[in-house]
Amino acid sequence: MSGHRPALVLAVLVIGSWATCASAQDAGRGKAKFDHTCAPCHGAGVGDDGRAMLPGTDALRIKYQGSLPALLEQRTDLNADAIRTFLRRGTWSMPPFRPTEVTEGDIQDIAAYLRQSSRAAAR
Amino acid sequence: MAILPPGVSAESFASAVREFQDAVGRDWVFTSDDDLYSYRDHFSYIKDQPNELIPSAAVGPDTTEQVQAIVRTANKYKIPLYAISTGKNFAYGGPSPNVRGSVTVDLKRMNRILVCDDKRHFAVVEPGVSYIDLYRHIQANKLDVWVDTPDPGWGSLIGNAMDHGIGYTMGFYRDHFGAHTGLEVVLPNGEIMRTGMGAMPASQSWQEYRHGYGPDPCGLFGQGNFGIVTKMGFRLMPAPEHWRNGLVTVPKRQDLIPLIEAVNYLCDLSMCGEPWYGSPLMPLMGNTEFREAALAFNESAMDRLAASANLHSWQVELQFYGSERTTLANWEYAKELVARKVPGARFTDGESLKTPLTREQIASTTGPYPTNMRRNITQGVPGLGIWYMTGRTEQNPNAWNETHIGLFSLVARSGEGVLKAQKDFADVARRLDMPSLFPNALQTPVNWYQFAFLMGNGFGLGRGDNSPAGKLAATAKLREVLRENAKLGYGDYRAPPILQDDVADQYSFNDFVLRRFTEQLKDAIDPNGIISPGRAGVWPANFRSMRGGMRS
């Protein structure tokens, strides 16, 4: 019996570690944060004053000319480091977002959500 | 690029930071360059310059008690604080303080909607609640009230009201500070004060009678530095059942005078929402003869050329909130009133829609006539759609105008006042050799405040020269504009920190008695001058030598 014990402990540790990861990066929370903070500019849907897209989505369409998706939720290249850089430094007319507005945990969650949403978009 | 608050030693600052950490937790005190980058003005005219207005640290409290602790520590070490809420304060300095090295009190985490009452029509919120947040709360709970949102809508209700921000629905609600219903403030000594009926501990009507009893100090907190507002109530417009719009045009330049008289009458009887003025003559600016007439303010020539093009000189788009029948009655009455005052006026019925409008109706740009009205904001639907004006577009794919300053002058709410302001602004632009973004002779006012007109100073500053020297020169020009405008009686209503002393200088009646009065109060209430020194040109004694420092 005792010979099995280390394996059981190891399994518990592995599961525990996975659970910690899942808690650290939660795509559901990431979607909620994305919808709240990012989607009003970078979401799908029409823009104001007859524009076909929201301003962030349209800006990326023009920038990438089809080489990358205009919608962030379809991008496969946005890991937490990339998201953090854009959020904390801003880019073009997008101003930086403060750590009280989007926390480090939020960044991890948004990265998890974008991984999930881009996989879904690819299917 | 670690900096210290002015006059504070590194040792004292380190002690203060430890006390801030004790108050709010280590995770919510930010001192690294990386973290503080997001507390800089992304659109600053003085980015990376030695006088850039950046904080020494930022602290993110979650409760009023934590705000009190921060204020007490700041008093102990004589550290200036600068409170921000949520949103980006676009064109007005972003999160940048008036004093370099201030500690930013970032109230974003205080984001609770405490009350939203759709029977008595008010909400009470904390500073971190945005218009988008409150709108979503109202939608999720199916409440029968609207928000009156600025554009874009990511800003804080409290932050926007504190800077005298505005919206786009019915007159009373458009003045966001004017529509407040009472404040809770952490005073410079750390005490909590509530205004109006909130000063009565058992009151059941805090949000319904904001005067309370005795002098009402609320005005000191708008564009002020007498405390940190931690709760604020706002009146909310009951959700109307119906919305309708219509277009009025009048043929001649001088017809603007009776047109504005009629629309003022309708607005002040609360019969219509925000009127949107414009000129149908803009397309004629491509015509050399008309352009020359417009630049010379040759009214008879402009009228003649407009008539030959079968165009009217002015238009106003009116909107009505209420029931289908009352909105129709108000529109019919508006037509009758304007027709009586302005011979030759034309009227075009707009749309008549049950509210809330659908997404498709809000997005629609088709209608009986071309409209300038941004429909989402007239419907109290906050968003970020307007950001296309600053970002990458097909017309502007590879460059962005990285500096933005909003300057709007108060103009008399009459046709005579508008026509005079057009000429005055053109004269100032010529005298100062400023490139004008638009022909002044066709410029119309915005009626954001129910009882006031604002007209933008639309100068193309910074375009083509975003170097530090170019930005410095542009800022110097803006200061000249503010001085010249003041001589002509035009004061500005809002400004970024780098220009707040200059705007404050416009209000100089009786040897600046208003400012002297305010600063006397400031010195009495905030003897260490820790709350936002310099905001709106109000400098406490120990920082007063910094007045005008941004000019050098």
Largest sheet of chain A: none
CATH architecture of chain A: Orthogonal Bundle
Q: Give the N-to-C terminal Cα separation of chain B.
A: 22 Å
Per CATH, the class of the largest domain in chain B reads Alpha Beta
Strand order of the largest sheet of chain B: 5-6-10-8-9
Strand portion of chain A: under 5%
CATH fold name of the largest domain in chain B: Uridine Diphospho-n-acetylenolpyruvylglucosamine Reductase, domain 3
| Number of strand elements of chain B | 17
- Class from secondary-structure proportions of chain A: mainly alpha
Structural class of chain B: alpha+beta
Number of domains of chain A: 1
What kind of oligomer do you see? heterodimer
Would you identify the CATH architecture of the largest domain in chain B?
2-Layer Sandwich
Overall body shape of chain A: globular
Mean residue pLDDT of chain A = 84
Low-confidence stretches of chain B: none
> What would you report as the Rg of chain B, rounded to the nearest angstrom?
24 Å
